[in-house]
Design brief:
The complex is a heterotrimer of chains A (about 300), B (about 260) and C (about 350). Chain A has about 300 residues and is mainly α. Chain A has helices at about 5-30, 40-60, 65-90, 100-120, 145-170, 170-180, 180-185, 190-220, 225-240, 245-270, 280-295, and strands at about 125, 135-140, 140-145, 220. In chain A, the strands form two sheets. Chain A has a two-stranded antiparallel ribbon with strand order 1-4. In chain A, strand 2 (about 135-140) and strand 3 (about 140-145) form a beta hairpin. The chains are: A mainly alpha (about 300), B alpha/beta (about 260), C mainly alpha (about 350).
């Protein structure tokens, strides 16, 4: 078995999930110019509500693929409502407030979501019943599971549709116009509030999908899973150039691969001093590195300060 | 009159747009130099390049004989160019006096240690900063409003406070970006008096203005920008007659 | 003594008020110790520790307007430096007055390394990077027990030396003119003294050239640059100073607890200190202290009260009090930002405007 290819395959799986979450950050950032700190927690809510739906549907003896799809739909609806609610309560009233204000409410919302999740689902890790066939396939010496193929496939399809939506449709044009200049867009008849709410809807649906996929990948879900994932996805968005959709995808995949390779080789590289328990550290160093060397990200444009 | 500032072949692009092309101008010590031009001619861009807010793509600036390292606004200020902003940028939640005191930053030096220990040097410097701030507030006629928060001042007062803050940095050149914008006739007249006073006191002023009448009446010399290029530079009477200037302002009045 | 008489005296002579406050502060540990017991005396000591932390973070968030979400990491650095240099773990027993400055210095160093690349960027990036940094520090503390055991991993380091002043350990009671002062009260006096020092430093900084530059940057960074302020350096200064205060408080924490483990330095701790600053009144020193005291004492009361109250109301404990406490923190953050963005006790700016001195 080829370790390098294996790690790349694992990295791409993880990276697809990062990319889905990163898209949520980048969409909101593009339109509102703010970091939606609570986004990671929406992913967590997606995973846990999907799990609840899965358990219920399985007990009603639905076939596994149907359960998978229905559970996702349920989670998506919950997350979309949640996303819009968060925007409405915690961000909209502060749109013209100093920068710090929405960041602080976002942290508040994250804590509330985590604590509510802890009350509802407890502190323990929940096993996610496998809904997809647990078969493995050989590809160029790497072992790839059906779950991994589904993750990469679903993520790729979703991201392609999103890019088409934003670049080719009327709605997408309104979104881009609002991102460019909300005032002018409003004059052209675009309802900025509606567009912003829609952006949160889309981002939250992506978060729900990411939540379902990530819990399928690891087979577990818990109240605290959103925090690190959110942080890494944000790193991915910065890596690709925040505000840039293609950048979020590239950044997500790249970060996934860097992390997987890093975790796979860190022991050899450091002579066994550091082990794979430092996996979570890579994203952070990537983040610092990008901010030092190329703050606008790989695909981002440099923005001049406005006088 | 000696030359204070010489800008040579300044160029600036934004993506595909050439916002400034080969702009050269010379400002003499003690004069009021006007920079006018139609909307979008590149006046504010020139201003932002000169004061280091935007990096320039080409050209050099020489201030009092020494080349100016552009790109870092605080260094430009330290070198002796102070500015105001078209859309007034005061420290809204600080008092008028504090705003001017911040202007003294580059001309004072006591750091954290001195501040925490309240050293003798610190107390003396602080008193000097405060004294100078009050002098400048009196100069622009705002002393009685010294304790008011900047955001609570009337529009015209905010403009004057911004000038006082700029003066606090001890500039050789004071650059005013559309100081009369949004002012009524009375306020404009007061502003005009203030700028004339500055000239009397030996300061050099660079004035960007939309109000052509104000510029023509106030300035010793005027340069005109159009589509990022300088099309004229002369005394107001001559600029007014210039065929290219009249064409640039086609339909607009120069009186 | 009646209230009207006191108020009158106070107005005639403000110093009289200060003397009263000082007396109250000196007597407080005895009143608390006698009335509520040692548990609450400990809470009081912790409240002062948090006040120091919050005052440090206030320089960063309140004055300079930089959102630092990993502030607790600097506290952790200070605590671990103390733990490593004054415990049986390495068999080192350095004196406290050598370790605290070292802890401040190391924390400051971390602050500079972290701040230098991020502070020239937009504020949100700093928030995320500091958030990540806080987690990274915890990951390292959790894992640096192999192959060389530096931090002793998740088990933490125990048996840390208590603070000694003039050969007297603060865990032991001290006979003082016939009055026995318990160790917890001695700690209280030390922490109180340090808190007052930090407060004084904060007040003096606020009213200085550097303090004005911080506020100017918070208000309008472009205009601050135009005033000749090297914004990058001045922001870095705020960040480094906040980090050093955190480092000192961390050292005190380690010696007070006599035990450190990574668990004490979670993101939630950072958030709690931030809450103290935001809730109290960003940039307003008395407000921040009020915030710190409130958020240390209230949750403690809550912890003791929430269980029994639920028991009484529902016949069982439905929600873990700890859980409920964090939930209330979250709600408080959102509510304060929405309805009272300048905090519970904001700077009384209107007095300035009325022209009163």
């Amino acid at each position: 078995m080829d370790i390098f290819l294996q790690q790349v395959a694992n990295g791409l799986t993880l990276g697809s999930i990062y990319a889905l979450v990163a898209l949520g950050y980048t969409l909101v950032y593009g339109i509102l110019g703010m970091i939606n700190f609570a986004h990671g927690e929406v992913v967590m809510v997606g995973a846990l509500t999907a799990l609840a739906a899965t358990k219920f549907l399985l007990s009603a003896a639905f076939p596994a693929p149907v359960v998978f799809v229905l559970a996702f739909i349920f989670a998506a609806v919950v997350c979309m409502l949640l996303g819009v609610l968060i925007e409405r309560i915690a961000y909209r009233p502060l749109r013209n407030a100093p920068r710090l204000a929405p960041l602080i409410t976002a942290i508040g919302v994250s804590i509330i979501l985590q604590q509510l999740a802890m009350m509802l689902w407890g502190r323990s890790y929940h096993a996610v019943p496998p809904l997809l066939p647990e078969t493995t396939h050989q590809l160029l010496g790497a072992q790839i599971t059906t779950v991994q193929i589904v993750i990469v496939g679903v993520a790729a399809l979703t991201m392609a549709s999103l890019l088409i939506l934003v670049n080719r449709t009327r709605l997408g044009r309104a979104m881009r116009a609002t991102a460019e200049n909300p005032g002018v867009a409003a004059l052209m008849g675009v309802d900025a509030n509606r567009i912003i709410a829609l952006t949160f809807l889309i981002g939250s649906a992506l978060a729900a999908l990411a939540g379902v996929l990530v819990s399928a990948n690891y087979g577990i879900a818990h109240y605290n899973m959103g925090f690190m994932l959110g942080l890494k996805a944000f790193t991915a968005a910065v890596l690709g150039g925040i505000g840039n959709l293609a950048g979020a995808v590239v950044g997500g995949l790249l970060l996934g691969v860097i992390e997987a390779l890093g975790a796979g080789y860190i022991g050899d590289l450091t002579g066994g001093v550091l082990g794979s328990q430092y996996q979570d550290v890579f994203a952070f160093f990537v983040l610092i590195g990008v901010l030092v060397l190329r703050p606008a990200g790989l695909l981002g444009e440099k923005v001049a300060e406005r006088a | 009159m000696t030359v204070l500032l010489e800008a040579r072949n300044i160029g600036k692009r934004f993506g595909g747009v050439q916002a400034l092309k080969d702009v050269s101008l010379t400002i003499r010590r003690g004069e009021i130099y006007g920079l006018i031009g139609p909307n979008g001619a590149g006046k504010t861009t020139f201003f932002n390049v000169l004061t280091g807010l935007y990096p320039r793509d080409a050209g050099t600036v020489i201030l009092a004989g020494a080349p100016l390292a552009l790109g870092e606004p605080h260094r430009v200020t330290q070198a002796g160019i102070a500015r105001t902003f078209q859309n007034i940028r005061l420290f809204a939640n600080m008092s008028a006096r504090e705003n001017v005191m911040v202007g003294r930053h580059a001309r004072s030096k006591v750091g954290v240690g001195g501040a925490v220990l309240r050293s003798r040097t610190q107390r003396e410097e602080e008193a000097a900063i405060r004294r100078r701030a009050d002098e400048l507030l009196a100069y622009v006629g705002l002393l009685e409003r010294a304790d008011a928060l900047a955001k609570n001042l009337a529009y015209g007062d905010q403009r004057r406070l911004e000038i006082a803050r700029a003066l606090a940095t001890e500039p050789q050149l004071l650059a005013l970006d559309e100081p009369a914008a949004g002012m009524n006739a009375t306020e404009t007249a007061a502003l005009r008096g203030l700028i004339e006073g500055l000239r009397r006191d030996g300061l050099t002023v660079l004035l960007i203005e939309h109000d052509v009448k104000l510029v023509m009446g106030l300035c010793d010399r005027v340069a005109v920008l159009d589509y990022g290029e300088k099309i004229a530079e002369d005394v107001p009477a001559a600029v007014r007659q210039d065929a290219r200037v009249i064409e640039a302002y086609l339909g607009g009045s120069l009186e | 003594m009646n209230g009207a008489w006191m108020a009158q005296r106070w107005q005639r002579n403000p110093r009289f008020g200060l003397v009263l406050i000082a007396l109250a502060l000196v007597a407080l540990p005895f009143v608390v110790g006698a009335g509520l017991g040692n548990t609450w005396l400990r809470v009081l000591d912790f409240a002062l520790l948090y006040a120091m932390l919050a005052l440090g973070l206030n320089i960063v968030v309140g004055f300079a307007g930089l959102l630092d979400l990993g502030y607790i990491a600097f506290y952790a650095v200070g605590a671990y430096i103390y733990a490593l240099l004054a415990s049986p773990h390495f068999g080192l027993h350095w004196p406290v007055w050598a370790i605290l400055p070292l802890g401040a210095l190391v924390a400051c160093g971390f602050g500079v390394v972290l701040g230098a690349p991020t502070l020239r960027l937009r504020g949100d990036y700093l928030a995320i990077v500091t958030l990540g940094f806080g987690e990274i520090v915890r990951i390292f503390m959790n894992n640096l027990n192999a192959p060389v055991n530096i931090t002793n991993g998740p088990k933490g380091i125990a048996g840390i030396d208590p603070i000694q002043i003039g050969g007297h350990a603060l865990t032991q009671p001290l006979e003082f003119f016939g009055v026995t002062v318990p160790g917890l009260a001695l700690t209280y006096y030390l922490f109180l003294g340090l808190t007052l020092l930090v407060m004084l430093a904060g007040l003096r900084l606020q009213d200085s050239r550097i303090g004005r530059a911080w506020v100017a940057i918070r208000e309008d960074e472009v205009a601050a640059k135009a005033c000749g302020i090297n914004t990058r350096n001045v922001k870095l200064l705020a960040f480094a100073m906040g980090a050093s205060f955190g480092g000192v408080a961390g050292g005190l924490f380690a010696s007070f607890q006599e035990f450190v483990s990574p668990e004490s330095f979670s993101l939630m701790e950072s958030v709690m200190v931030l809450c103290m600053v935001v809730l109290g009144g960003m940039g307003h020193i008395p407000g921040v202290i009020l915030g710190a005291l409130t958020l240390t004492v209230l949750p403690e009361a809550f912890r003791h009260g929430a269980g029994p109250v639920q028991q009484a109301l529902f016949g069982q404990v439905l929600v873990d009090p700890e859980n409920l406490r964090m939930l209330l923190f979250g709600l408080a953050l959102v509510a304060v930002m929405l309805y009272r963005p300048s905090g519970l006790w904001p700077e009384p700016r209107h007095r300035l405007e009325l022209g009163a001195k």
